[in-house]
Amino acid sequence: MVASSNDEHLTIYSSRDRRYMKHVHDNVHGNIYLDPLSLKFIDTEQFQRLRDLKQLGVSDLVYPGAVHSRFEHSLGVYWLAGEAVDTIKTYQGSELGIDRSDIQTVKLAGLLHDVGHGPFSHLFERGFLPRVLNGSKWSHEDMSMDMIDYIVDEHHIEIDSETVKRVKEMIIASHASHKSTKEKQFLYDIVANGRNGIDVDKFDYIVRDSRACGLGCNFQFERLMETMRVMGDDICYRAKDYLTVHKLFATRADLHRTVYTHAKVKAIELMLVDALLEANGYLNISSSIQHPAEFWKLDDSIMKTILVDPRQELKEARDIMLRIRRRDLYQYCNEFSVPKDKLEHFKDITPQDIVCSQKAGGATLQEEDVAVSNVRIDLTRGRNNPLESIQFFKDYDCNEKLTIRDGSISNLLPAFNQDMIVRVYSKKPELVEAVSEAFVNFQLKTFGMEAQVHATPEKKKHRR
Asked: Of 265, 278, 287, 387, which is the most exposed, with the fewest CB atoms less than 10 Å away?
């Protein structure tokens, strides 16, 4: 993976020289200009696979407009990553030693950050794989690392090994919450920021997802992009922009509440996991996760594969897929919010917990009759306020960094930064009332009257 002298111009040309670039029009950012080296990755079957991964999984079955793909999201992050590092270079380039190689590396990290993503948004790695891997961990970031190496080798892309190494480190930087000793650490916080959660990945998907779902979005990432400043290897923001920073996290949380964890979306996801588990033994879905050469062939079309495959071994999975198509979904019964003082040590509720709480005299429930969704919604830092991890500055004439606890901006400290909602579903319409009653019994037995039940049992089947 060493660049030849003939291709050296692909990595060290001026990032603003668009004569060598191809451009595409994006419905969020307008014209996006693709540099020659990035095009070598884009024009591969492994990257083009991202066209067949919907950014929001099955959310389009509730929000019909949410059919945008990880392909366009990746182009958006590529573009914003380049814009961010270009802005920093314009104002502080000589001071920080930013060179053309830095710009190219950050852009490649933005482009390739999701190249190892599984199908159905995060359901594949958080809902399906934990059920079949017996506790072992797998992440799309790790697969992205392997996929980058595979693409470089498979397509003989001439790129030096140090650039590849830095690209991969920038992609997994979201896991590095501690202070790093890397040179130019601020570059590693642009695409995936594990230190405070502000990164161009969020900038893109928050605006893109809001627009696709027909929701308003009053978060303006452009304001942060234009005024950010590197101080002591930290990307800092003007103190008077703290409300814009807060809107970033608040808008993300709102998307989780209204779209990503919508009750019907979660019902469909629970059904999809059940179908994938039924089909896994025959289609070997999970076996592909260890091998990039096989993994790139896996995408959202697995739903259609299961639906049309006539084999008897797939009947159970096929029947679930048919129920999804016919809108015969698992029935939402009830939900409650976990009391704030119980969040720290609260364990996920299981169908067994609900079944064990049923009273004698009614319908007898089995674990396979019940589905449970444990939804955690936070501001990216769990129970902590992410603003406490962000460095601000008063104005451009001041070289002192401020934190959220300084007097000038200390009024934005909400009491709680995380909620947990437990929802229960009945897989059979005739058991809705029995499941609802068992769920209420469990809630009262566990929390007394502390937890608020938000819904009453459904008395009839809702189609939408």
From this structure: 287
How does pLDDT run across 66-85, given as a tens digit for each residue? 999 999 999 999 999 999 99
Residue with tokens 């679930």: 320
| Pair 357, 367: CB distance under 8 Å | no
Query: Going by C-beta distance under 8 Å and a sequence separation of 6 or more, which residues neighbour residue 235?
Result: 88, 186, 189, 190, 198, 228, 229, 391
Q: Tell me whether residue 262 is one of the annotated catalytic residues.
A: no
pLDDT, tens digit (0-9, with 9 covering 90-100), for 366-411: 999 999 999 988 777 666 777 888 999 998 888 888 887 654 555 5
Amino acid type, 314: L
For residue 139, the SS3 value is: coil
Q: Indicate whether this model's pTM tops 0.70.
A: yes
Read out DSSP for 321-370? HHHHHTT-PPEEEEEEEPPGGGSTTPPPP-HHHHHTTPPTTSPPP-GGGE
Annotated catalytic residue: which of 68, 113, 117, 140?
140
Write out the two tokens for 459.
Answer: 């008395």
307: closest CA among 289, 320, 292?
320
